[in-house]
Amino acid sequence: MTPHDTTLPETQRGPAEKLLELVLGGSAHLWHNRPGLDIQGVWYPAQGASEELVRRGTPVAPGLFVPAAVKLYRQLLDIYRLNTDLLAHFASYALTQTDWRDLKVATSALMLVQGHSGQPIREPDGSIAFHDDDLRAIGEAMLLHYERKSTRMLTPKAVLRVAELLETPEIARLNREAGFGDPAARKPPLGRWKVVATRWLRAREQNPALLQGLVKAGYKSTLQRIARKAGYKPLTQAFFEVLGWKQKQAATGHRTVGLAGLQLIKRERFDGLSEAEICERIEHEHLSFKEVVGRLPADVGLTPAILAALLPSLSNKDLLMMTPTLEALGLMADADIRARWEGAVRAASDQRALHIVKNVRGQELKAKLEEASDNAARAAVKEATAETDVRVMFLIDKSGSMQGAIKQSKEALTRILAGFPMDKLHVATFDTMGTVLKPKAASRTGVQHMLRGIEAGGGTVHGAGVHALHWAGVQMPGEAKLIVIVVGDEEGEDGAQLARTFRDCGYDVSALALIVSVAHSRGTSVRTCSTALRVPFSEVSVDQFEDPYQVPRVLKALLDAPVARGQAPVSGWVERVMRTPLLKVA
């Protein structure tokens, strides 16, 4: 088998397994703001690419990466066909409980065009018996959802991207094939996008402060594009004035608003102003970084004082991203700025800081950015285990078959193990003998130190790791849920034998997961063990942990223990999705 073999044959995989595969098997990055390379449907950054990648790849312009969009949309359509209710709950879950921006765009696009639109269902005599469910209303609610200062509602850019995704020829073809649009129509099916976009714009036009805030945040051109695409007709010309949008009469002569007397609000450059005057303007007008950076005179540029004045407008993520700039300008020595930055480190929700480390010179800052990565993992673990006392057992395959794959396994583990409370985490390596491991510190450095001596060699007996933990006195509280996560290639003893080992050692397993790390071939030990134990099984490829956004998502999905066992065990994460209330239009 290959590292990409699925858990079950395609014909045996139900919607829950497909949904879990979607979440664990892809980061759902559809839009990229820099040039890339398409290598067999996978996007790679063009900058810094090796000669080999450049030779094999096809250049891709910034914007939507169509192969990834088609793959994700097909997966969503597949789940929709198998279990429409599950997809509806997942769309609601994606918006309200995740930060997966492109995934929200794709799910809301599908909900806006899919076939359950509240249409009347008629009796044989033509009378209306009842109305079908209106699941398009969930797509509407996703776009209209508003929560002050929330990072989980759709941004103006996301609202526009929903339409752009639906207009993509390959996506339009999938929708027509699914019966969501007229197969003979030239225009792509947009479902209710124009209607809901009009309502979205109207709410902001009628709330001038909200509209002005979006313009200040840098969404002026995005708002204009939404208005054009939706055919929006403003109530007053104030809408055009706030957007600085000059109007002219249409060829058909139907326009009546904004043709005369417009007082356009335009951003003036800061040419001729001193550094002190620019800082005064920033503080007096509460200007944001995006509003200022493009207006600075060339002879002034971005100075320490100007950046310090702009700091209140920066989010925690912005602050972490700008660490190299803050360091270069000497601003990390300022006590107030340093305190704000330290707060951003504590609040990190992804592991992008590990990429920023490469551009920072100071060792102390490097260590702090690694701490941000640990904090993101801790936050994900805390959220996933908030409702249940979860204990986690990691079994790390170091047998000879892992020669060539152990390095990648160790790097993945350094990104996740520091996220677990040490009193609830139990780690053992195994070949034909098990060895219990304990980090000396709950940090990336502590985990690296713990793993550094691991080398591949020997036979493969998963149960050796289980026995090692048992002999070391590891016990589980009766009320706790035990999640066992195996890192390796699954080649080893029969799954039924591994199941007996868990039972003999007194470990009541609630769920099994596999981080697939394969150098040569793959076995079935963990999957068949889950069948013997009648517990949920999930798997994720080790390379998913290279994505700084994907690590917290994977941890949440793997650690949601099932509420109860059954004949057909379901992931606790899928249970959580199904418990998510369906979104409704306010």
Automatic annotation (TrEMBL):
Residues annotated as domain VWFA: 392-489
Signal sequence residues: none
Pfam families to which the protein is assigned, alphabetical: VWA_2
The domain of life for this entry's organism is Bacteria
UniProt-listed SUPFAM superfamilies: vWA-like (SSF53300)
Q: Which organism is it from?
A: Melittangium boletus DSM 14713
Q: Kindly give the Gene3D superfamilies that the UniProt entry links to this protein.
A: von Willebrand factor, type A domain (3.40.50.410)
Instruction: Provide the protein name.
Output: VWFA domain-containing protein
Tell me which InterPro entries the record gives.
VWF_A, vWFA_dom_sf
